[in-house]
# Entry
Amino acid sequence: IHELDGWRGISVLLVLFNHCFLFEFPSALAHTRLINHLPQHAGELGVRTFFVISGFVITRLLILEERQTSAISLKNFYTRRFFRIVPVFYLMLFTVAVLIAFHIIFGTLASVLGASLFLADTNLMTHHWFTGHAWTLSVEEQFYLLFPLFFILSGARRRSRLLLLTLIALLAWSVLTQLGLFTQLFPPGAIIGFSCINLGALVALFEPEARRYAAGLHPLFAFLLAVFLFVHPIPPIPVALVLNALVTPFCIAIVLMYTVTHKDWASSILNNAAIQWIGLVSYSAYLWQQLSTGPIDFYCNRTAMRILHSPLFAILVITVSYYCVERPCTRFAKRRTTGSKDLKAVGTAVR
# Structure
């Protein structure tokens, strides 16, 4: 679904917008309160959009696999996830560890360790800028550690009910964290992340119904929802924060499905070649941008800061990461898993 690839591109640009204007160049928008408000919430909107897309796409793939082969292979699922996420992620962590060890950037090896164990979304590990974004990967991998097993064991008839119950539980937990309760292990952002993935999975289960609903939406309504998400007119008071935690995942899902079903100007923007390419490399871009958007004080010297802050350097690293590491690893995983799926399909046809 090309529109979702475009949304991946938009999402990583929102994260970059947040990091550049709040951390890399904090004085750029410091004198304009209204405009300064926008990048403050752009980053969380970007990662929550990633979460909804991830839940939708991965659940959709599981459904398609089950339809084609009458079964879901856990081995194949975890093989694809491993080669999709781990090689380039660990390469980034290794690079950060080397830069810390050689006193090029400031940081702690403990934060690298916490990120490598996919615990960066918890309060159990130390956190630092250059590995701070790993919390989103931790949320995803913790969710997908149990999700496919639950998906298989629950059976086709009970999946929707169980996913709805888990969504209600996660939304309730989100409300409690906004009120300062049950935050000892996970911060509020992680719980909202879990609910976004869960909602994406639920939308995939009801994709035909979701498409019909989105197809009937008035363009102005979808546009106003998108403006609401981006402008984020939420005052920092408990009631408003609670409502935001409950409503935001649904608003994101509605806007995504609207652009999938309506081939209008929004769809044309998402299908733009540049946005599509950014969406294609969005995972590598998300991982490596952290090195190039850190506050000035997080670099050990000005030379290192200028090199790492260089847009050309960032584009080069992201391009090499995608074409030389990420894409070969995902293609290797597909080759390893496609054969077994084909054999399983043949066996089903014979029976």
Summary: The radius of gyration is 21 Å.
